[in-house]
Amino acid sequence: MNAQDCLTMLREMKDVAFATVDEKGNPQVRIIDVMLVEKEKLYFCTGRGKEFYNQLRRKPEVAITGLNKEFQMVRLSGKAKKLPEQKCWIDRIFEENPVMNGVYPGESRYILEPFCIDSGNLEFFDLGKSPIYRENFVFGKEKGAAAGEEGENGKETAKESESGNDEKKGFWITEACIGCGKCMRVCPQQCITKGTPYLIRQENCLHCGLCFESCPAQAIVRRGE
Amino acid sequence: MNAQDCLTMLREMKDVAFATVDEKGNPQVRIIDVMLVEKEKLYFCTGRGKEFYNQLRRKPEVAITGLNKEFQMVRLSGKAKKLPEQKCWIDRIFEENPVMNGVYPGESRYILEPFCIDSGNLEFFDLGKSPIYRENFVFGKEKGAAAGEEGENGKETAKESESGNDEKKGFWITEACIGCGKCMRVCPQQCITKGTPYLIRQENCLHCGLCFESCPAQAIVRRGE
């Protein structure tokens, strides 16, 4: 599993949710087709008359998510860049997605503008497995900045992220652990391993917070908020 | 079709995208289960340790979308309210959604908090039809405020919205129309009818903006931005 695999999954889901922030600072979300994925880049398009287009022009930050039939979720966050050479990209998109001709026949396709997300953060979350499985990736030019030298292949498991990346989320057990085992007993996914200190297997963690609330020594900390 | 039908569709899709705005003002989105829908209210839950929970507590505005196999999309925007009587609601949710016991067995379910959306705006968008079909609804207490006296049943077609509701989006042809017919010829969904002035059938409009850009008399205006 790597960043390209996650992007390919989004392309296979095809109809995924794209969230933006509107001019009032509120969330907006709609289903948009992932039109192309190649070389760790994701392409989509939208009409110049749409609110989605105006929201992207005002604030390019976008969050994407989709779920497949195996209950595997992919989440992406990044910035959407409008592409130059509009006609060239729109023609390419229509070639790869012929169903678009039914919605925008003939020359009407050129009301669409192509966008690309070439860097950002990805999360893979497998709800079809027990325990659940999660993994984070960075892709594109964010890779160097976010993952540092360990970012090869854009792969970076949740566990590796202990080395201190701002983008990393979840809970960690500190040296203040008294070894009582309460966290291990309450964890709904049984993803805590005995040790000194006890250890949360980050790749199986729901981030539900039950260990954090249950620890009698306040030895569990939250990261990334 | 009415607001309750849209909410029921979201419940049937079950796994839908919930978008929020994070502490940096950026969009975040993830797949969440719609746990219950009744009496024009939508219920879901999330763990107190999750970023989603913290985002909702900071800023309750949420946008939801899902797509079914018939390519019918529903979009909702509203505010998520945390419910009192947590255990009572969580028990009810687990009763209606027994699969949750596999993820949060035993007492661990009470790390979850129940939320309700009891008012807001809904959009139904049918991409499985040609031309596409769209309709807007308000539900809950927003109904009175947003739709005024015409808001009975929470039903309010895009066409009715010409009476001037801030929440209404799209394009309208004004009296400045010179009757040249260019908008009608370029429309990808052929949703413009000849007349004085020409008329956009709002329920079939993609909001792509091609008529707006093509009108030689600048007779077409955008609403709701």
From TrEMBL, chains A, B:
Q: Which UniProt keywords apply?
A: 4Fe-4S, Iron, Iron-sulfur, Metal-binding
Family matches, as Pfam families: Fer4_7, PNPOx_N
- InterPro entries the record matches: 4Fe4S_Fe-S-bd, 4Fe4S_Fe_S_CS, PSI_iron-sulfur_center, Pyridox_Oxase_N, Split_barrel_FMN-bd
Q: Name one GO molecular function term.
A: 4 iron, 4 sulfur cluster binding
Q: Which cofactor does it need?
A: [4Fe-4S] cluster
What are the 4Fe-4S ferredoxin-type domain coordinates in residue numbering? 168-197, 198-225
Q: Does the keyword GTP-binding apply?
A: no
Keyword Flavoprotein attributed? no
Q: Superkingdom, according to UniProt? A: Bacteria
> Which purpose does this protein serve, as stated in its record?
Ferredoxins are iron-sulfur proteins that transfer electrons in a wide variety of metabolic reactions.
Q: What is this protein called?
A: Ferredoxin
- Give the organism, scientific name: Suipraeoptans intestinalis
